[in-house]
Amino acid sequence: MEMSGKTSQRADAAKNRERLVASARRVFAKQGPDAPLEDVARAAGVSRTTLYRHFRTREELAATVLEENVVSIEKRAAELSGQWRAIETLFDFVLDQQRDDGGLIQLFTRSDLAPLESLSRRTTAAFEPLLEAGLRDGTVQPDIEIRDIMIAFPMAEAAITDSARIGDRGDDRARAMFRRALWQEKWK
After folding, report:
1. pLDDT tens profile 119-130
2. Domain check: are 34 and 85 in the same one?
């Protein structure tokens, strides 16, 4: 009987963690990365104590949300493999994530960047085969390297953050600028 009680507690803890991550994604997207963690706990239907039992810091919670993003990038890259315009589609997918996440990466510019290093390597690895394919078929500008793609993301994050602050659609302008710089015109 005690074993099933522990199993039930673990299942409840896992559900709480899932709800916290989903709530953090929504709350951060709506209120930004400095949103009160109390709001995240409330949105998840748990106490602050439960939140802190799962995530000791705001950065740890944000890193978990970003980890889910990287998993979805890896999955999307695998789905796109071999498709025409795959690199552009994945690039837009990541820009959409950045726009929808309410500037979570900003948290790491104010603190330790270590949690992002592994996520950055995995994101790079997801893009590399699509970039190679795009270079082979001429859809990517011939002088583009993987680091050019990766440099574009913090630039886009800055444009998205600035656009949200002043209330315009600068992220669309940034996206158009990246398309001109990264992709071959004949491809469009």
Report:
1. 889 999 999 999
2. no
Query: Going by C-beta distance under 8 Å and a sequence separation of 6 or more, which residues neighbour residue 167?
Result: none
Q: Report which DSSP code applies to 168.
A: S
- Residues 45, 115 within the same domain: no
Same domain, 104 and 162: yes
Asked whether the beta carbons of 94 and 42 are under 8 A apart, the reply is: no
Could you tell me how far CA 87 lies from the centroid of its own chain? 16
Pair (49, 77) in one structural domain: no
Q: CB 6: neighbour CB atoms within 10 A?
A: 9
pLDDT means over runs of 10, the chain (188 residues): 63 92 92 91 96 92 91 97 94 90 66 74 96 95 95 85 63 86 75
pTM: 0.84
Closest to 29 measured CA to CA, from 127, 168, 186, 161? 161
18, 39, 56: which is the final residue of a domain? 56
